[in-house]
Amino acid sequence: MNSLLSSVLSAALLAVLTVSSVVLFVPQLVRLVRHRDPSGLSGSSLLFGTVNYTAWSVYLADARSWGLLAANVVASLVWYAVAFLALTRLRPERSWWLPGVWAVVLATVVVFERPVLGAVLGLGSLLTYTPQAIGAWRAPSLAGISPTTWGLTLLEGSVWLAQSVRDGLLGGILSGVIAVAAATAVLAAIRVRGVTPEPDLDDLGDLWDLDPLPDAA
Length: 217
Known about the structure:
The chain is mainly α. The protein has one domain. The chain has 9 helices and no strands. Helix 1 (2-24) runs parallel beside helix 4 (66-87), helix 1 (2-24) packs antiparallel against helix 7 (147-167) and helix 2 (26-35) runs parallel beside helix 4 (66-87).
């Protein structure tokens, strides 16, 4: 009975994780497509996330954690689209070279010390989320940030943490804790600073009815 309950709980967690991964960055993607304004988004976070999502797929495939892998692959595809749209409109920062260094570090770990990849990736989540968590408190405008995406990040991080505890994945546990903390920080900044972005639920409703917008001058 306990085994059946455990299997049902695991399946439920993975279902929630997969669904949240599918829709996690869709509000952010739609906001960028419609408004073409990446204000408040951190280019460094987007680049670090691109590197980390790719490396997570390698780690989860090695660990044969197929449910988490499927959720990660789906989330990766939407993240790549968000990163591309935002980075082509953000002004380059001097810190953008750091994700390249991080990619070299991860590639070295994969080749020479693959058993520690999970722990390195878990801590590496700090590189993805910290710039955005700090930037949300410092940016003059948060117009480009999707509150819905960060609310879903809070949900996904919580489920990712729970499933990683069940699977005994140290990297997943660290990543889940960091994602929850970062999402809480961003949502708190939106509420406390009084510069709340326009609600983006209407963007989701208009997902299939996107009118072309002129390029920004």
